[in-house]
Design goal:
Purple Acid Phosphatase, chain A, domain 2, six-stranded mixed β-sheet, 2 domains, about 20% strand
Length: about 375
Amino acid sequence: MTMWIIIMWVIIAVVVTALFYLGFRVPNLFESEVVSGWKDFKQFSLGLLITWGFTGIMIVCIDFVNALVCVVYLAMIWAASDFAFWFIEKITNTTFAHYYAGWFAVLVTTFALMFGWYLDNKVWQTDYELTTDKNVFDTKIAMFADSHIGTTFDGNGFAEHLKKIQAQTPDVVVVVGDYVDDGTSKEDMIIATKALGKMKTKYGIYFVSGNHDKGYYGAQHRGFSEQDLMQELKNNGIKVLRDENVLINDTFYIIGRRDFSEVKEQGGSRLSMKELLKDLDKNKYMIVLDHQPADFVNQAESEVDLVLCGHTHGGQLFPFNQVGKWIKANDLVYGHEKRNKTDFIVTSGISDWAIKFKTGTKSEFVIINIKKGE
């Protein structure tokens, strides 16, 4: 809870700073004798009024959260542009006749956010090739996480993405949390789950919950409870794993963990890696599904073969994705990493939560080919 309070205050500070910065800089765009003749406070008031007006338009066109993202991005790029043009003036010993820095910032921000929208709404396929010394048949796993149905696509849109995954003929499909959200309607949840249950695989479809699947605002808010979701998944032949494991083809285990939010946010508990593995045959290939990449040390020590996670959205926004890496908010923000004998893969997600731009990553589903090493 303390971390979230700190994050909230940091966000407020960043937004306020961005608004004030733009309030000071926006009037420079107007090369008018009338405006240039105004006192600083009057110019700042005009800049602040224009900035608030822009923010209001973005709130109407998109929503409150994404409007603030646009404002913060504009302020960051504007500050970088101001510095760059100041530096050019210094090293060339010249002065620009017009305020190019501001217009350049507006142009770059527009294109950056348009591209970020595209990266968020289009879904790519990301492939990984893994080898093992254990006795396994070649296996193709399709993985996705963070669909948050109802954000970038509804239930029918989700079904269209599943067709692309199905075209890869996976042996098994795993859903690694945050399948739905508080904004997901019951109708979309049912449509999506029926489509998921119709996928053709050799070994089935497996599901673990994320922190958003339970719903933060109660069943009345979205029209269904977490229990309703679990039942709908089971009704469609999807295996829900909550600190449970399944042995497939007497060759490999899929081990599904309860989400860390059940411990961190709800005061509950989940089994440790040691408890999860105590009765399993360590000679078989072991795949762990764990929504949050937050237990890598214990997972590596347990020497499971593969851990699949989501949750981070790949860091979502540059440069905040880099900040997440520096402060180690998660064990891994995105991609593939090997620790000891364990491969870790964290996906950026097939969709997103509240922010509708991805400037530090892109939306994806993942195909993992596991082969026996030579």
